[in-house]
Design brief:
The complex is a heterodimer of chains A (493) and B (359).
Chain A (H helix, E strand, L loop, with lengths): L2 H15 L3 E2 L2 H6 L17 E3 L4 H14 L3 E4 L16 E4 L6 E5 L4 E5 L4 H9 L3 E2 L12 H7 L6 H4 L2 H4 E8 L4 E5 L12 H5 L7 E9 L1 E2 L3 E9 L2 H13 L6 E6 H6 L2 H7 L11 E9 L1 H19 L2 E2 L3 H13 L8 H5 L4 E8 L5 H14 L3 E8 L9 E8 L4 H20 L19 H4 L2 H12 L25
Parallel strand pairs in A: 2-4, 3-4
Antiparallel strand pairs in A: 1-2, 5-6, 6-10, 7-11, 8-9, 8-10, 12-14, 12-15, 13-14, 13-17, 16-18, 17-18
Helix pairs in contact in A: 1-3, 9-12, 11-13, 15-16
Chain B lengths: L10 H10 L9 H6 L6 H12 L7 H7 L7 H4 L5 H14 L5 H13 L15 E4 L2 H4 L2 H13 L4 E2 L8 H5 L3 H14 L8 E3 L2 H11 L3 E3 H11 L10 E4 L4 H5 L4 H9 L3 E2 L18 H4 L1 H17 L4 E4 L4 H16 L4 E4 H8 L2
Parallel strand pairs in B: 1-2, 1-3, 3-4, 5-6, 5-7, 7-8
Classes of the chains: A alpha+beta (493), B alpha/beta (359).
Chain lengths: 493, 359
């Protein structure tokens, strides 16, 4: 970064924001990484940290960045796994959590209009007073903001019923790299056939087109009752086939997750803490399918009963006999209620770091993908953590898969091996007619290499980026360059 | 008793936080909520801690100011499995050892070392009795409040023995004055022979946790003893009959696990208890903890106002609590907030309520 430009920009930002702009090394250090695997001593320090409070301030910040050619990197929950929120090229880190107001809850039209830095959890606690909720629920919801959900297109526990953020998003305000604030979308309507769907471009844009400052979301009534059940399955493919059959029967399923045996262990921390024992599964079990049902109590009871009969009779599955195990899994997945002073995540990452390849595969190729995962992880010395299949599209079995490993982050070399694992897994996904990423995004890992997936489409994506961000100041490098995976276009011709 | 470690001894915890990044500690951190920079949250501090360990950052006045604005309320630790408070304290020690400390903390430490107490002692409560009671600096500076608490205890047949005492030194330890805290501990031990008793009552939650953790003493907060007495005497108190919420003081609740006894007493007093959303283990600090009210009163008030707003959100106009720091801090904030929101939320101490109900 050009020190003189940074100095000038900081002076101007101070004029606008006062103490909400800082070049302090202490503050910069606090914004030096997200949740992506990297060497444990690696830092990406921004030059300046700013905290805007509204769209107009964001416009003014962007004008300063534009004038001085300094990168702007949005920072929200800081729980992203792809390096999207790190200031790889320095620049101005935009702490979006200052944009944390609810602007309107419209009970009549079932919408909530918010500033983008509000977390899912805070928004939902307010919506609950209206007996409403936003069903887009990533596991990171305590830290994750609405802006991050849009910008990263992250996962949602309830995707099989409500879809992902796109299915809830009605409109949004983005401050583009031209320092213009535009509202895109269809106001409070759910659909529009007019114009191009610019709102869709914001999904998974990772701050590369602009900074999202506001959003209007469709919200839904809070269900009266919820039941969660687990089914032990003989084959991984049974989980997807079973799910299709359940949906085909007319049942309403609220969430569906399939775990391989290994992955179950990771999700049952609270069970082990509470009951002091390891979860037991039959020897023959290949996978476990967790389903939740929500609505009026009698309907939920019927759904549970019918689903159990189908899974047992038609797929020779066994309901999990210990409901405590299922509840323990649900603690980790959704409730996030752990015994005080015993939060789950830190303990699981004391020695090594959680890392994942987040592939999307056609639902008929799960077992093939799983076996390849075991081979590829072994090849790159990655400790296997297990596989979870998320279903993220309404009323159909889909396969957004976390192929997780524990990454040794003690050296650059071991971290590089993890990214070699990601590379080979991504190549496998394309070979199996899938996609490289379903909820992490490109970040600083897949850019350029993603040409393998998009082909000439990537060229058009670059052109779109230039329309929004002619000076390439919006989170530069992300989506189009990788700092981890080298890619020679000739390799795959 | 807890062992004091150096920051480097926590390296594994710090790296674990850096690689975990769950952020569960961040959103509800009352300081972060007001100050907005990640650095004020525990997760942000863990990255700063790493900078100190790896020597990419050094102690500075600015870092001291940030660390001094931690309430030491322990909410982050309740959401975590790491030793967050010990790490933050060890970072504060690094500041002091590096020559950086806030003047008001230095003055307080000096005063405790020379006078044996943090605040002017306006009460002289020494007396003979049956059970040892450690009064603490705050209650000794508040004769009326102390007289009320002692009167309640006497009326419930709890007869405190109060002797000479010096400050427990919580603030000295929490603000990172390591060597000075050793002196304070020695001073405390010299003057406090009556603590050989099998059980010691306390009035201040902060003194309670300090006496237990730093001196290994068998302490019990007096409100627990009151609850035990009232269980034996149903009908001993008259019903006051109003609607209120209860604010769990951080040290009494989250740290010592005293949640139900105050609620049990409120129930006996006929008070309709409306819980705030964040209660018990996840109660939000009043803003007076960790020495923050000494270094930044504006921040302390803003945090307290947010806690009063929590009560308003539940539709109650009375907060009850049982801590000599929480009570005035919340009351001051309620008075400041009233013109902004058009509602005055009263703050009533549990000792005062018991005093009324026992007449």
């Amino acid at each position: 970064m050009d020190a003189e430009q940074v100095h000038k920009a900081f002076g101007e930002l101070r004029e606008i924001l006062g103490h909400r702009a800082s070049t302090s090394p202490v503050h910069r250090m606090a914004y030096s990484r997200d949740w992506s695997p990297r060497h444990r001593q690696m830092n990406d320090l921004p030059d300046i940290v700013v905290i805007p409070r509204d769209t107009q301030e964001m416009v003014r910040i962007t004008k300063v960045a534009y004038r001085h050619g300094i990168p702007l990197v949005p920072f929200a929950g800081g729980t992203g796994m792809g390096g999207g929120a790190v200031a790889w090229n320095g620049g101005i880190m935009v702490e979006t959590k200052g944009l944390n107001h609810i602007l309107e809850i419209d009970d009549q039209n079932m919408t909530a209009t918010v500033q983008s830095g509000i977390t899912i959890e805070v928004l939902n606690s307010e919506l609950a007073r209206h007996r409403l909720w936003l069903p887009h629920q990533p596991e990171s919801k305590r830290a994750c903001t609405i802006g991050a959900c849009i910008g990263c297109d992250n996962d949602s526990t309830f995707g099989i019923r409500y879809g992902k953020i796109r299915d809830c998003l009605l409109n949004a305000v983005i401050v583009t790299g031209r320092a213009e604030a535009i509202r895109v979308g269809q106001r409070k309507a759910s659909f529009s056939s007019t114009g191009y769907k610019v709102l869709d471009l914001l999904i998974a844009s990772e701050g590369t087109l602009g900074t999202i400052t506001e959003a209007t979301l469709r919200v839904v009534p809070l269900p009266e009752a919820r039941e969660v059940r687990g089914y032990v399955c003989r084959r991984l493919n049974d989980t997807a086939k079973g799910l299709e059959r359940l949906l085909g029967s007319g049942l309403a399923i609220e969430s569906a997750h399939a775990n391989c045996r290994n992955r179950l262990h990771f999700y049952t921390h609270s069970y082990r803490e509470k009951y002091g024992r390891e979860p037991q599964l039959p020897e023959w079990a290949d996978a476990i399918l967790f389903l939740s049902f929500a609505g009026d109590s009698d309907i939920v009871a019927f759904n549970v009963d019918k689903a159990s009969r189908i899974m047992v009779d038609e797929f020779k599955a066994e309901p999990v006999s210990e409901q405590e195990l299922v509840e323990g899994w649900w603690d980790s997945k959704h409730r996030l209620e752990f015994i005080p002073f015993k939060q789950k995540w830190p303990d699981s990452q004391r020695q090594k770091k959680f890392g994942a390849a987040d592939l999307g595969l056609p639902i008929g190729r799960l077992e093939e993908g799983y076996h390849r995962y075991l081979e590829i992880a072994k090849k790159w010395d990655q400790e296997i953590l297990g596989m979870t299949i998320y279903n993220e599209s309404p009323n159909k079995a889909t396969a957004s898969i976390s192929f997780a490993v524990f990454v040794d982050d003690s050296s650059q070399d071991t971290v590089r091996k993890f990214y070699q694992y990601v590379r080979e897994m991504s190549e496998m996904a394309i070979e199996l007619d899938g996609t490289m990423s379903t909820y992490i995004g490109d970040g600083d890992r897949l850019g350029g290499f993603n040409q393998l997936e998009h082909g000439p489409g990537l060229k058009y994506m670059r052109r779109i980026k230039r329309i929004f961000d002619p000076k390439n100041i919006m989170n530069p490098g992300k989506k189009f360059r990788s700092r981890w995976i080298e890619y020679d276009q000739g390799e795959h011709r | 008793m807890t062992e004091r470690k150096r920051l480097e001894d926590y390296a594994e915890d710090i790296y674990t936080c850096n690689r975990t990044r769950c952020g569960f500690c961040r959103e509800q951190c009352p300081v972060y909520h007001v100050m907005a920079y990640e650095t004020y949250s525990c997760r942000g501090k863990m990255l700063v801690g790493r900078g100190l360990i790896e020597k990419t950052l050094s102690p500075s006045e600015e870092m001291t100011q940030i660390l001094d604005r931690c309430l030491h309320c322990g909410l982050c630790q309740a959401r975590c499995a790491l030793h967050n408070l010990d790490i933050i304290t060890s970072m504060r020690r690094e500041m002091v050892q590096g020559g950086f400390s806030t003047p008001v903390h230095r003055e307080n430490v000096q005063r405790i070392l020379t006078e044996g107490r943090l605040l002017d002692a306006r009460a002289a409560p020494e007396r003979q009795g049956q059970i040892s009671l450690y009064v603490g600096c705050v209650y000794r500076s508040k004769p009326r409040e102390l007289a009320t608490a002692l009167s309640v205890l006497e009326r419930l047949d709890i007869h405190p023995l109060i002797g000479d005492e010096t400050c427990c030194g919580y603030i000295v330890d929490a603000t990172g004055f390591d060597k000075e805290f050793e002196e304070v501990q020695e001073q405390f031990k010299r003057t406090y022979q009556q603590f050989q008793a099998p059980e010691i009552l306390t009035l201040c939650p902060t003194c309670t946790i300090t006496l237990r953790e730093k001196y290994g003493l068998p302490v019990k907060h007096a409100i627990v003893a009151v609850a035990e007495q009232l269980r034996k005497r149903p009908g001993a108190v008259k019903r006051l009959g109003f609607r209120a919420t209860y604010h769990d003081p951080c040290h009494l609740g989250r740290m010592l696990g005293v949640f139900e006894e105050p609620r049990e007493i409120l129930h006996q007093l006929g008070i309709e208890l409306v819980e705030m959303e964040n209660n018990r283990y996840f109660s939000i600090c009043c803003g007076g903890g960790g020495g923050v009210n000494a270094v930044d009163q504006d921040l302390s008030i803003e945090i307290a106002k947010n806690r009063v707003r929590d009560a308003i959100r539940m539709g109650v106009e009375i907060i009850t609590t049982v801590c000599p720091t929480c009570e005035p801090t919340l009351l001051r904030a309620a008075a400041r907030l009233a013109p902004e929101v058009g509602t005055f939320v009263d703050v009533q101490g549990l000792w005062d309520l018991l005093d009324k109900a026992l007449q």
